[in-house]
Amino acid sequence: MIERNDVCWCGSGKKYKKCHYFEDQAKELAHQTQGKPQKQKKGLIKSDSEIDGMRRAGAFNGEVMDYIRPFVKAGISTGELDKLVHEYTLAHGHIPATLGYNGYPKSCCISRNNIVCHGIPSPDEYIQDGDIVNVDLTSIVDGFYGDSSETFLIGDVSEDARHLVDVTAQALITGIAVVKPGRPLSSIGEAIEPFVKSHGCSVVRQYTGHGIGTRFHENFTVYHHIDSDCEKVIFEPGMTFTIEPMVNRGGYQVVTDRKDGWTVRTKDGSLSAQFEHTILVTSTGAEILTMTPSQRKENVVLSVDGKVYKNHE
User: Which position has the higher pLDDT, 96 or 232?
Assistant: First the structure.
């Protein structure tokens, strides 16, 4: 079976997810109708027991986020934050999913300022006053994956940075709000991209959300920009996936560090922010699986530097 990030079978040299992925999925997984959006076969829908597993994984991942939250401040190294995440996860009998994934060397991703994603924590990299810092966590609990991220404002940040983080948080809320059974996956990008553009920012296109379950990445790609290919996937109760818009203050283009092969930065050097939750489609809408204990207590989706982003419903 070809995975999403493998080279496409057609010989184009492109990644499968950027080439024949959606076309093949439509042929193999969709029911035959007269060109109308297709429903997936039940192989893509989680069973009740699998949904329970996803809820446990999401809940623990949220717990880790609340645990690390008070440590994300000026003066601490990103390597120390990674160590704390690693030790907390193992102490609770679970697995940090990123450690060793395709060779990634750490237990979480920490991305500062103009780093879009996949920032590698280091004992020599210290968080400074005025930074914006994304912490991206993924946990494996009894074989199921929970995945979420938040961007933190450190001390006296610029108004430009604060604007970007606010727009990105609202972009996540906007994307979650459109998840309803029967709607196409493309609804997410169609909601997020115009919103982000209207606030003078851009949506990263090269990195996306994804289906998730007993594998880190499964089933389909979740674009946060407008893309008609996403019309081929229809929301159904029992589907689980991430929504994780990465938003740049400048252009959407990104570059990957040639030395480490992981760190992704904005091409123009502008700031970048991200928020992410793992989502379950229900009979009426979306259930957020990775809400933290503090978020559940306050009945909010996010709380950033004292600003509250209410439940999408």
Answer: 96
- Reading the block at residue 49, the tokens are 């027991």
What fold, for 43-310? Creatine Amidinohydrolase (3.90.230)
Beta-carbon neighbour count of residue 10 at 10 Å?
12
What DSSP designation does 43 have? Answer: G
- CA distance readout (Å), 215 to 2, 155, 179: 14, 37, 22
Burial label for 275, CB within 10 Å (0-12, 13-18, 19+), is buried
Which one, of 202, 194, 204, 290, lies nearest residue 242 by Cα? 290
Q: By three-state DSSP, how is residue 238 classified?
A: coil
Q: Which residues pair with 287 in a beta bridge?
A: 280
Percent of the chain predicted with pLDDT > 70: 88
Quote the strand ranges of the chain, DSSP E: 95-96, 109-112, 115-117, 132-141, 144-153, 202-203, 209-211, 218-222, 240-243, 246-248, 254-256, 264-266, 272-274, 277-281, 286-288, 300-304, 307-310
pTM to 2 decimals? 0.85
Return the pLDDT at 258. Answer: 92
First to last CA, the chain: 38
Q: Which residue intervals of 184-307 are DSSP H helices?
A: 186-198, 293-298
CB neighbours of residue 284 within 10 Å: 10
- The contacts of residue 238 (CB under 8 Å, 6+ apart) are 45, 46, 47, 51, 280, 281
Can you read off the two tokens belonging to residue 179? 């998840």
Q: What is the DSSP string of 105-118?
A: -SSSEEEETTEEE-
d(CA 6, CA 52): 30
How many angstroms separate the CA atoms of 291 and 60, rounded? 9
Q: Nearest-CA neighbor of 313 among 177, 174, 190?
A: 177
What's the angle, vertex CA 209, arms to CA 33 and CA 3, rounded to 5? 70
